[in-house]
Write a structure and sequence with these properties.
Structural class: mainly beta
CATH class: Mainly Beta
CATH topology: Immunoglobulin-like
Shape: globular
CATH architecture: Sandwich
Protein name: Spondin domain-containing protein
Radius of gyration: 20 Å
Distance between the termini: 37 Å
Oligomer: single chain
CATH superfamily: F-spondin domain
Number of domains: 1
Strand content: 25-35%
Strand order of the largest sheet: 5-4-7-8-10-11
InterPro entries: Spondin_N, Spondin_N_sf
Helix content: under 10%
Number of strands: 12
Pfam families: Spond_N
Largest sheet: 6 strands, antiparallel
Keywords: Signal
Length: 230
């Protein structure tokens, strides 16, 4: 089944700069300004539960790139909703936070993520549960010019991780509509991240599909509003 886990906010230590003059007793300690962001996420689909969104703050790097192979951490997320490897293996992560559970169709979740110093970017990923390896997210949202109390709003689309063939079968789709395996390390698809072609379903003639028209979706699949609160 999709893993909906609660991830505690992780923050790095405060950055401290000590400048010394000619006199050793003269020193200045500069502490960077802490930042905090409140992120409102809404599931816009009709029948796709979205796994607990994992949000990260970072200054470099990116979680995925269209046209390039998915990392093993992203593969696990896209096939099962499990974000643990992204947390463990993302070297450029400064801080992170997650929703306490998945977001069902039409519902919202609010996640607060913070850091002890200014940051450049916010990214997030979530799986579309009634799919083989569909995911959504935002990659490198620029926060550098966002002032306190200002907001940014985005609509997110569905991506295909390219790591598992879109059979939509009861054995391979982990969401509640099928109840299949959570993930499989064997990559049997094109092995690059692309835009997701959508759910075909048994109703439209895919004989392997355990899904119906109710699990179909159009873009966008989520609405995301980021507000700087500190």
């Amino acid at each position: 089944m999709i893993k909906f886990s609660k991830v505690a906010i992780a923050t790095a230590a405060a950055l401290t700069l000590v400048a010394c003059g000619d006199n050793d007793s003269d020193s200045v300690t500069i502490i960077d300004t802490p930042v905090e962001y409140e992120v409102l996420l809404k599931n816009l689909t009709n029948g796709q539960p979205i796994s607990a969104p994992l949000l990260i703050l970072h200054d470099t790097g990116e979680l995925f790139e269209v046209g390039e192979p998915a990392s093993e951490a992203l593969e696990l997320l896209a096939e099962s909703g499990d974000a643990s490897r992204i947390l463990d293996e993302t070297s450029f992560l400064l801080s992170s936070a997650s929703a306490t559970g998945g977001i069902v169709y039409g519902e919202t979740a609010t996640v607060t993520v913070s850091h002890t110093a200014q940051v450049n970017y916010l990214s997030f990923t979530s799986m579309l549960g009634n799919s083989n390896d569909a995911f959504t997210g935002l990659n490198k949202v620029d926060l550098s010019e966002l002032a306190v109390n200002d907001s940014l709003t985005f609509s997110t689309v569905a991506y295909d991780a390219g790591t598992e063939a879109n059979t939509e079968s009861a054995e391979t789709v982990p969401g509640p509509a099928a109840g299949g395996e959570a993930s499989n390390p064997i990559r049997d698809d094109i092995n690059i991240v692309t835009m997701h072609p959508g759910i075909v379903s048994a109703d439209d003639g895919l004989t392997t599909s355990a899904l119906t028209y109710q699990q179909k979706f159009d873009n966008p699949v989520m609405s995301v509003t980021i507000t700087r609160t500190r």
